[in-house]
Structure formats: structure tokens, C-alpha cells
Amino acid sequence: MYKVKVFVTLKESVLDPQGKAVQQSLTNLGYQGVQDVRIGKYMELSIDGSSQDVEATVKEVCEKLLSNPVIEDYRYEIEESVQQ
Amino acid sequence: MKFAVVVFPGSNCDVDMLHAVKDELGQEAEYVWHDADDLSQYDGILLPGGFSYGDYLRSGAIAHLSKVMAEVKKAAEAGKPVLGVCNGFQILLESGLLPGAMLRNKNLKFICKPVELKVENNETMFSSLYEKGESIKVPVAHGEGNYYCDEETLRALQENNQIVFTYADDVNGSLQNIAGIVNERGNVLGMMPHPERAVDELLGSADGLKLFQSIVKQWRESHVVNA
């Protein structure tokens, strides 16, 4: 069993109004040094299979459903999890 | 003309959509559940607004993989009119039937109000009864209606005259104030404003009626020619 962490973020070229609002709020809190905030999604998947298959599956599901390639990028980390 | 109003779990404008074509226009129309596997008996497909599957992940992301969408694609390929309003538009974007994607509104607020639209293209089966440049009043109700696409796609939309409606004022941050677009073939329209909520002066506006009437007109004309 593999534990997969998927991070989906808006592309650099896409404005993130939510991140901008949070950054503004941090500035108001006194954190002048925080120049930029980008908000994304974090997902955890548990996948059964060989390590090669798992990687192929992760790519496929990221492209088909977990991210929208028009506006988002994704990256992932695969960890082998200890059988319970 | 017989319409299918596709209902997903979480659709909430299906009743208004059925009312627009059935009661206002006197056409046949039926609700079709999201797991339907045959839409061949319908002449037009309407995807209503709402929050399909709770808008989980992204608006329209889960709905676009539902069983009925394969049938909606077939209908689009057959040249039948397919109209997606609000969440229906988002589903069409996710399914790739229309280009681009929706971002959250620029001001991060859910915007629910009547807005002024400009008819940019009246040479589509959805807009033929409007004048080019006509100003119409139609309500919007969305949190993610900030239309986005890359420059290349935008150029293609402009060159092919695929932008059908724009907002008269910047409502939600949409690129070029885009409110509604058609596919290249011109038989799939997606728009964020709700024409089905503007079909009677009692509702504040009847400007949405012409959109549905345009669809019926085109269907009648094509079927008279074929008869």
C-alpha cells in the first residue's frame, strides 16, 4: 500500500484572489514581510499496487479529476506505508 | 421540440429551466437524472444551475464524469443544441465541451443580482432573435464565475466569434467581461447568467425568453427544410 500526497495549486499565471485576501489580512496583522500567499489543495490517497502502477495511476487521476490543467498545476509525493 | 433538463444531485435551477421551455414556450420537456444512459429521444439538452455534487473539488468537476455526460457529448457531436447555465456552464468547461475554466469571483463574494449583458453575437442558434449589440437584463447568482482561459484560447474565441454574451460592467473579474461562449460549431452554449430566471416581467425581466425562442426557431426551421 502506498500513501500519496497530492498538492494542487493555481498556475503562476492565474490570479489567486483568495491568496491575495489572506496576504492582505496578514499585512494587517503586522506581518509586513509576507509578500505573497497562494492557496491550494492537499489530498491524501491510499493506493494499492506496484510502485510503477501507483505512479501511473496518480498521474492519471491528477489529470483526469484532481486538478484542472487549464488553471492548476499538481505535484505529488509517494510513500510506501507500513501494512497494518 | 423536446428538451431534456439534466438533474444532478445538487442541481437547483432545474425547475426554473423546465418552466421556461414548457410553460413559457409550450415545448415538451422532461427531467433526466444524472445516470441516464440514453438522450437520443431529445432534441435539445439543458444543463441547469446549482451545486452539483456539492461543488466538491471544483465546480462541475464531479458532475462532468457522471454517466449522462457521455450522452450529452453525443448530443453535442450530433449538432443538437446544448445549453449550460451557471453550474451547467461549469460542467461544460470541465468536460471540455467548451474551452477555459472558472475561478472564484474577483471580490470573493457570491454575487446574486440582475446584470446588464451585451449580445456580442446574434448569429448563433441561441441568440438569433436578439439584435447584435442589444442590451439585456438577466440575473447572475454565482461564486465562481470569473472566466479564465489562456491567451491563445481567447484569441481563438474572438476570431471564431464564439463570445456570445459579455457583461456591460465588470461583474466578477471575467476575462474580457465574458458571460457566455459557444463552441466552434455553435451548438453548445455556456453562460453564467440565468436566462431561465428572466422569462416574465413578473420576475423582473423577460429578456431571457428570446434565447429559448431562438433555439426553438432554429429547430423548427431545420426540421421544415428536412421534412
Main features:
heterodimer; A: 84 residues; alpha+beta; Mth169, Chain: A; three-stranded antiparallel beta sheet; 33% helix; B: 227 residues; alpha/beta; Rossmann fold; 11 strands; glutaminase activity (chain B)
Enumerate the spans of chain B where pLDDT stays under 50 for 5 or more consecutive residues. none
H/E order of the elements of chain A? Answer: EHEHE
Secondary-structure arrangement, i.e. CATH architecture of chain A: 2-Layer Sandwich
- Residue share in helices of chain B? 25-40%
Rounded radius of gyration of chain A (Å): 16 Å
- End-to-end C-alpha gap of chain A: 10 Å
> How many distinct folded domains of chain A?
1
Order of adjacent strands in the largest pleated sheet of chain A: 2-1-3
CATH classification class of chain B? Alpha Beta
Number of strands of chain B: 11
Intertermini distance of chain B: 14 Å
Return the domain count of chain B: 1
Largest interface: A-B, 13 and 21 residues
Pfam families (chain B): GATase_5
Main location (chain B): cytoplasm
Pathway (chain B): Purine metabolism; IMP biosynthesis via de novo pathway; 5-amino-1-(5-phospho-D-ribosyl)imidazole from N(2)-formyl-N(1)-(5-phospho-D-ribosyl)glycinamide: step 1/2
GO molecular function (chain B): ATP binding; glutaminase activity; phosphoribosylformylglycinamidine synthase activity; transferase activity
